[in-house]
Structures are given as structure tokens and as C-alpha cells.
Design a protein that fits this description.
With about 850 residues, the chain is of the alpha+beta class. It has 6 domains: about 1-40 and about 170-205, Phenylalanyl-tRNA Synthetase, Chain B, domain 1 (2-Layer Sandwich); about 45-165, OB fold (Dihydrolipoamide Acetyltransferase, E2P); about 215-415, Phenylalanyl-tRNA Synthetase, Chain B, domain 3 (3-Layer(bba) Sandwich); about 425-485, Phenylalanyl-tRNA Synthetase, Chain B, domain 1; about 510-610 and about 620-740, Bira Bifunctional Protein, Domain 2 (BirA Bifunctional Protein, domain 2), CATH 3.30.930.10; about 755-840, Ferrodoxin-fold anticodon-binding domain (Alpha-Beta Plaits, 2-Layer Sandwich), CATH 3.30.70.380. The chain contains 22 helices and 42 strands. The strands form 12 sheets. It has a 7-stranded mixed beta sheet, sandwiched between helices. It has a 5-stranded antiparallel beta sheet with strand order 5-4-3-6-11, with no helix packed on it. Strands 13-24-15-23-16 form a 5-stranded mixed beta sheet. Strand 18 and strand 19 form a beta hairpin.
Length: about 850
């Protein structure tokens, strides 16, 4: 909200010589954040001049200029720039005559954009200044000719300071108005807040207007589809003003104030309605009554109904849109924008002025639905004072009489069914307990009265009825905020609050953090990818498994080429890898934990009707909405590319592969107290010979928790990735569910270990992992560790067979093992492998 200081001073006593910084500081004190300051970026001397005569001089370029003699100071007096009272000035405009009073920028003046005025030789003359147009002064967009003061109804003395005359010496402050403070979208509201901050006297402009109840004009409130049970218009008032001269110019004081406030001057009648909206915060709308058929009806739009709005756009209306209609149909979007069919023009003579109070939710939805934000909708959707509609009408009517020569008729209407503000109970001691400051009873009572509330003592505190312009005050906490804000936030001590005792993080949250910290500690970098995928990515990547799952399509995707919610984290990670490779980062180890969206085949989502805003849905509605959502488990994914370590003296570089991805997965499992094993698997996007299904065995039951492998070389090439890209993805929620409640840490025993090697010959079709399981099962409790150290196929091993060598480590917790005990345990493992796979001891 921009607030011209000259306008603000009409309703509150500004300290003499107040600067924009001082006004900003006062408003910041009561909670309005500073946004900036504005002025017309003009520096004098800029004065009123009179064209004495001129000579038209055609130029070789086809242009005709006027060599003008202009008086810029009273006869015999020195001009403000120290020069003569009569100047020669070159002017390219031709819309003036001798004797016209104009605005002259003398040498030394600076116009907007840093355009400095100086005596310059041009077209064969020395032009000692410039005659200015409205656009050059920042008053409007008119650049067709110079500004003739007679068109503004002005006849000032030659030499008068034009900046002061036209209000161009004013400045404006701009503050950020939060959504709950709609009343501050007005000079009235800001003046009241400045008074709260400084203690200056506030003069309510509404109190200076005497509303008159008019009748005789037909208005029907026929809202048959209210939102949240509230009709679209709770207040609706009209007034007729006749014999208006719509062709009259907007006076400069109004045009400059509107410009400083950020609103472009359009025409006198439109400017008057905008002026009153800024002044009081109540939007009004003017209709050409001669173009209105019959009376007005406030109703919801009919199916398929259209409306051409003032911006000349034809809009198809929704049945939720609140419209103003006459006998021909909709003539305006209520609270948003009027219709072109009843627009005020220069030939309009009879004006129907409307002021209303519309439901904020209805206006907000209409404004967003049609992508049509307006100054009026900004105020209505935040809440407008329901008690000032008639005052705003009278203010508009007064200005139409004073500035447009109109006559106020007795014809009009008034309808009001707006509910009165509801009292709010404020228990004794509540504010002190909430804010932490010991406010006195007098401070609380005085502050709540100062903001416009009606305060009544009750048995255990106060009963406060908020003012009509504060619909945001519905709870005692809002009253506490008002007291803290008005008395001063500086009263609140800077003390770090003590967190109340609680249960802390849940088990799932703790384990998720533990997994993330474990992966980061092992050298991976956490990233976050967008959750939207293309159709090809959803077809190629399943949900951390081997089968493709259906994907949910977003109704309004940010990117038309990526309209699906992800079913896997891997595509997003691969996109991040591709971007980093393009920027020269060749060795990457990335991970992400996040939600994936796994709908059931054939299910449809997003078909339920959303509940209306503004009220909390019931538990039944929330349950129905929840049941309409797809499953959203949390996954963890890993992508590795480049070298595991760089080439160094005596050490060759090693490219990452599926083994590195499996190591990262095992580290993840350790953080959860789980052993994740790899078995031969398959995946449509992964290398068929280098893909593993990830399995966790608990209580004798195997659970597939994810997949690991290397990306298909063809896919890597198509995506401009290295040939070897190692990936893994696991269902983190499932892992946490399988994780033991108490994660045990293996103790370090003081007795020495006994090591043995075991080489077995088995069929080359037998998975090595299965042989490991068999040997471990047979070796029993003494076996502490087993790992595959060699897979040999060649001379000395029969065709169709392979030799697997295992390193075994045995240890007892209560004694030192003998070599015989270790050998017996090894042979027991051999026996189980022989029985299950026909394994033989390699000689």
C-alpha cells in the first residue's frame, strides 16, 4: 500500500517536516513492514509560464517547430534560475495558443529518469528551458501536446512554483499489508495506525460524511448458491447522481495523489471512485445508468453465461462467480471488475454508484479463477468494513458534485444483513501469560479501546467487541497481539524460551535421520529432485523393483512434458547427475530420501470434490480424502558415477560399479540393524548381468526391499552419461518396519580368531550367495565372518563348473579355539553345501 504523505496528513497530525523515513519508522513500530518510498523524481526550478507569442518554423525534415516567447516570472522580476523573466523556448507541440498558462522547466531542473534541463542550441535557436507535457512531469501518459493549465481549471500567477501547484512535491511511503489487515489498504486505516504508533490525533474521514438513506432503485439479492453458508453480498447500497459532466479533467491534486498511490489516472469519474477506495478502503463502482436495463440483481452466474469485462476480454463465467446483473444479464463481476456494457464514457450524464460488502472467499475464488486481480478484489478478499458503504457512496457523490457538476438524486437503495462483530472473552492474566510481559490493566483497557473495540468488564476478565473493520479479531490471542503491538514490541524481553518436555522424535524419524547421516558419513552427497516425471521415465523405472507400476497424472502440471508423479527416485537423481556432468563434475556419489507415489492399478485419484475453504473439514471428509490418495512410501536411492578414487602414484584409478552401490546399501542396512543381501535380479532399466534384488531375511522370511545394479549402457548413452552408472533404490519405510526395535551392536571379544580357507567346486549355475548361506548355516555359531575371495573357472576345473574360495573366520566368546575345532566347523559347512548343491572340496 502506497500512502502519499500530504493525503495522510489530512487525517492524522504528522510532525512538522516529517520525512518518509520517520513515517516508515512509526509504521514499522506497529507491525507494517517497510517496502519503499516514492516521489515524482522532479527537481526545480519548474514554474508556471505564459506563452506571449510564437512563430511557426517549418524544418527541412518535414517537422514544424514553434519558436516561443514565454514569460516565466512577473514583469521585471528575476526567474527562479536567476535568469530573465521572458525566455525564448523551442517547442515541438502545437496544441497551445498565445496567452496559455503552461508548465516551464527552467535550466537546472531535472525531470524523471535523470533528464537535466539546460539552455541548448536547437533548430537554430538557443532554447532557454522547456515547456512540459503531462507525461514528462509524470502526471500521466499524455504526450501528444504540452500541459495547458486551463484544461485543469487553473489560472495561477506567472512564476508560481508548479511543483507545489500540481502536488508534484509530495512523497509516498509504501508498506506491506499482511492478509489479516485489510483495513490498512486505505489512507483511513494507515492514518489510524500512525496515530496508534505516535499518539497523534486521528480524524476519521468517515465521521465527516453524513450518510443519507436513499430509495426507489430496485436491487435484488438473489444468491441461491452461497459459499460456506454465507451469501455473496451482505451489504449493497446504490446512489444516483444526475447531470454529470464526465468530460471534465481530473484535478491535478487528485491525479498526483492517485499516481503516488500507484493508480493511473483514467477519467474523472473512474478516478473519483478509485480515490474514495484508497481514502476509505471501500471499493465502489460507477455505472452509466442510461445503459442499465431495469434494476440490479446480485446472483451467481448461470451455466455458460459470458461477460465482457472492462479490459475488453470476453469471459466464460463459473456458476460460483457472483455477478451484478440487470435485465439483459451479467454486467459485472462482483467485487472484481465491471462490465463493458455499462462503462462510464465521456458522454455519460447519469451515474449509478454502487458500494457493497462481498464475501471474501467468493471474491478471492473469482479473482483467481479468471486470473483477474484488481484493487477492489485485493480489498474485498481481505475484508472491508461493512459499516462504511453508505459513507463511501456519499463521498463519491460529493466529489461528483464538486468536480463533475452533478446533482445528487434521492434515488438509491440500501440492503444490509451483515452480522455484528462477536464479542471475544479475554481472561484476566491471559495476555501476560502468553506474551511474557506484565501489562497493566489500564494499558490493556486503553489499547483495546484505542483500536476501536468496546470493552466491558466481566467476572474473570474482559469482554471485547472488536470494531467492524477488524474481522480478523475472533480469538483472545488476536487481542493479545494487538496489546503487544500497540504498547510496543520493545517491551517483550529477548529471552530464549525453554522448550517444553515431550516425546521428541518418533522411532521412524530417528531411523530416517540415522540412515541419512550414515550415507552422508560414507561419502555420499544428499540432493533433492523434482517429483515429476515424463511418461517414458515412468514406463522405464518401476518402484525399486522389477515390475512397472502405474503413475498418477497431475491435473495441472508445471511442465507438460513431465505430468506424472514419480514412482521411483532414480530418474530425478539421474537428471541431477546429467546437469552436474555438464558442468564438469565427473565423479559423483549422490543419494536422496523422499516419497514416491504408487497407485493401485485401475484406481482413479483426485476425483473427490474438495471441501470449501475457511472451515475445518470433518473427520469423515478428511478420511475420504485420505482414502483417495495413492500409497506414498518413503524410498532411498543412490547413484554413483566416475571414479571411486583418483589415479595416484602407485595406485590406479578405479571406476565405480555395482559393488560400490551394494556397499552403500549394506552401510544403510547397518544403520537400521539389518543385513541386506544381494541375489541375482532383473530390472528393465538395468544391465541384465549386473542387477541384484536386495533382500532382508527376518524370522525365516525373505523380503525384497529394493534393487541395485548398473544402468543399461544404451540408456546411459542416450542420456549422455558415462558407460558405467551404478544405482540402488530401497523401500526405506519397509526397512524401518523390518528393523529390530533394539539395534544390537556386536561386542568385541578378547579371544583370538582362527582363520580357515575353503575352496568348493560347484556348478557354474549355482549362485555364490546361496553357497555362502549353506556354508554359514553348517559352520554354526563359531563362524564369525565369511566372504567370497575368488571365483575361478579354467584349467583344473571341469567344464560347466567353477571354484569358489571362501575366507572363514571363527571365534569363541569364552575360550581360545583350537585348530581342530575350527576345522570341524569348516567341514560341517562343507557338508551342508555338498548336500544342497553337490559341492566338492577342491584338491
Amino acid at each position: 500500500m502506497r500512502i502519499p504523505l500530504g493525503w495522510l496528513a489530512e487525517f492524522v497530525d504528522l510532525a512538522p517536516g516529517s520525512t518518509v523515513d520517520e513515517v516508515h519508522a512509526a509504521l514499522v513500530k506497529v507491525g507494517f513492514e517497510e517496502e519503499g518510498s516514492h516521489d515524482f523524481d522532479l527537481t526545480g526550478p519548474i514554474v508556471v509560464g505564459e506563452v506571449l507569442d510564437f512563430v511557426e518554423e517549418p524544418q527541412s525534415n518535414g517537422k514544424t517547430i514553434r519558436w516561443c516567447t514565454v514569460r516565466v516570472a512577473p514583469v521585471g522580476e528575476t526567474a527562479p534560475d536567476g535568469g530573465a523573466d521572458v525566455r525564448g523556448i523551442v517547442c515541438g507541440a502545437a496544441n497551445f495558443v498565445a496567452g496559455d498558462k503552461v508548465v516551464v522547466t527552467l535550466p537546472g531542473a531535472v525531470l524523471p529518469g535523470g533528464f537535466a534541463i539546460a539552455a541548448r542550441k536547437t533548430y537554430g535557436h538557443v532554447s532557454d528551458g522547456m515547456i512540459a507535457s503531462s507525461k514528462e512531469l509524470g502526471l500521466g501518459d499524455d504526450h501528444d501536446g504540452i500541459l495547458r493549465l486551463v484544461t485543469l481549471g487553473l489560472d495561477p500567477v506567472v512564476g508560481t512554483d508548479a511543483l507545489s501547484l500540481l502536488g508534484l512535491d509530495d512523497q509516498a511511503v509504501e508498506v506491506n499489508v499482511t492478509p489479516d489487515r485489510g483495513y490498512a489498504f486505505s489512507i483511513r486505516g494507515i492514518a489510524r495506525e500512525y496515530a496508534h504508533s505516535t499518539g497523534a490525533a486521528f480524524r476519521d474521514p468517515v465521521a465527516a460524511v453524513e450518510p443519507i438513506q436513499a430509495s426507489g432503485f430496485s436491487v435484488d439479492i438473489a444468491d441461491d448458491a452461497p459459499i460456506r453458508g454465507r451469501v455473496g453480498a451482505t451489504v449493497f447500497a446504490t446512489r444516483v447522481v444526475r447531470d454529470v459532466d464526465a468530460s471534465r479533467p481530473t484535478p491535478p491534486w487528485m491525479a498526483t495523489r492517485l499516481s503516488l498511490a500507484g493508480i493511473r489516472s483514467i477519467s474523472l469519474i473512474v478516478d473519483i471512485t478509485n480515490y474514495v477506495m484508497l481514502e476509505l478502503g471501500q471499493p465502489t463502482h460507477a455505472y452509466d445508468l442510461d445503459k442499465v436495463t431495469g434494476g440490479l440483481t446480485v446472483r451467481r452466474a448461470r451455466p455458460g453465461e459470458t461477460l465482457v469485462t472492462l479490459d475488453e476480454q470476453k469471459r466464460t463465467l463459473s456458476v460460483e462467480d457472483l455477478v451484478i446483473a440487470d435485465g439483459t444479464g451479467a454486467i459485472g463481476l462482483a467485487g472484481v471488475m465491471g462490465g463493458a456494457s455499462t462503462e462510464i464514457g465521456s458522454e455519460s450524464h447519469t451515474v449509478l454508484v454502487e458500494a457493497a460488502n462481498f464475501d471474501p472467499v467468493s471474491i478471492a475464488r473469482t479473482s483467481r479463477r479468471h486470473k483477474l486481480p484488481s484493487e477492489a478484489s485485493r480489498r474485498f478478499e481481505r475484508g472491508v468494513d461493512p459499516q462504511i458503504a453508505t459513507a463511501a457512496l456519499e463521498r463519491v457523490a460529493q466529489l461528483l458534485v464538486d468536480l463533475a457538476g452533478g446533482t445528487v438524486a434521492d434515488t438509491g437503495s440500501f440492503h444490509s444483513e451483515h452480522p455484528d462483530p462477536q464479542p471475544v472473552e479475554l481472561p484476566a492474566g491471559y495476555i501476560t501469560g502468553l506474551v511474557g510481559v506484565d501489562f497493566t490493566a489500564d494499558e490493556i483497557h486503553r489499547t483495546l479501546t484505542e483500536i476501536g473495540g468496546v470493552v466491558e468488564p466481566v467476572d474473570d476478565g474482559l469482554l471485547v467487541t472488536p470494531p467492524s473493520w477488524r474481522p480478523d479479531i475472533t480469538h483472545k490471542s488476536a487481542l493479545a497481539e494487538e496489546v503487544a503491538r500497540i504498547v510496543g514490541y520493545d517491551r517483550i524481553p529477548s529471552v530464549l524460551p525453554v522448550a517444553p518436555p515431550g516425546r521428541g522424535l518418533s522411532r521412524e524419524q530417528l531411523l530416517r535421520r540415522q540412515v541419512a547421516q550414515n550415507l552422508a558419513a560414507s561419502g555420499l552427497v544428499e540432493v533433492m529432485a523434482y517429483p515429476f516425471l515424463s511418461d517414458s521415465a515412468t514406463q522405464l523405472f518401476g518402484s525399486a523393483g522389477t515390475e512397472r507400476v502405474p503413475a498418477v497424472r497431475v491435473a495441472n502440471p508445471l511442465d507438460a512434458e513431465a505430468p506424472y508423479l514419480r514412482t521411483s527416485l532414480l530418474p530425478g537423481l539421474l537428471d541431477i547427475v546429467r546437469r552436474n556432468l555438464a558442468r564438469g563434475l565427473l565423479d559423483l556419489a549422490l543419494y536422496e530420501t523422499g516419497l514416491v507415489f504408487l497407485p493401485e492399478a485401475g484406481a482413479s485419484y483426485g476425483q473427490l470434490e474438495l471441501p470449501p475453504g475457511g472451515i475445518r473439514p470433518s473427520d469423515e471428509v478428511l478420511s475420504a480424502l485420505q482414502s483417495g490418495l495413492p500409497s506414498q512410501p518413503r524410498h532411498a536411492a543412490i547413484v554413483l558415477v566416475g571414479n571411486a578414487f583418483q589415479k595416484q602414484p602407485g595406485l590406479d584409478a578405479r571406476t565405480v560399479g555395482v559393488a560400490d552401490a551394494l556397499d552403500s546399501v549394506r552401510q544403510l542396512g547397518l544403520a537400521l540393524g539389518l543385513e541386506i543381501t544381494a541375489v541375482q535380479g532383473s530390472h528393465g532399466a538395468l544391465h541384465p548381468g549386473r542387477t541384484a534384488s536386495l533382500v532382508v531375511t527376518t524370522s525365516g522370511e525373505e523380503h525384497v526391499v529394493g534393487v541395485a545394479g548398473e544402468l543399461l549402457p544404451r540408456l546411459a548413452e542416450d542420456a549422455h552419461l558415462p558407460r558405467t552408472v551404478a544405482v540402488a533404490e530401497v523401500d526405506l519405510d519397509l526397512l524401518i518396519e523390518l528393523s529390530p526395535r533394539d539395534i544390537a551392536v556386536s561386542p568385541i571379544f578378547g579371544y583370538p580368531a582362527a582363520t580357515q580357507d575353503l575352496s568348493l567346486v560347484v556348478s557354474d549355475q549355482t549362485p555364490a550367495g546361496k553357497v555362502v548361506e549353506a556354508v554359514a548355516r553348517g559352520a554354526g555359531e563359531l563362524l564369525e565372518d565369511i566372504r567370497l575371495v575368488d571365483d575361478y573357472r579354467g584349467i583344473g576345473v571341469a567344464e560347466g563348473q567353477k571354484s569358489l574360495t571362501f575366507a572363514l573366520r571363527f571365534r569363541a566368546t569364552d575360550r581360545t579355539l583350537t585348530a581342530v575345532e575350527a576345522s570341524d566347523a569348516k567341514l560341517s559347512g562343507l557338508a551342508v553345501a555338498a548336500a544342497q548343491f553337490g559341492a566338492t572340496l577342491r584338491e
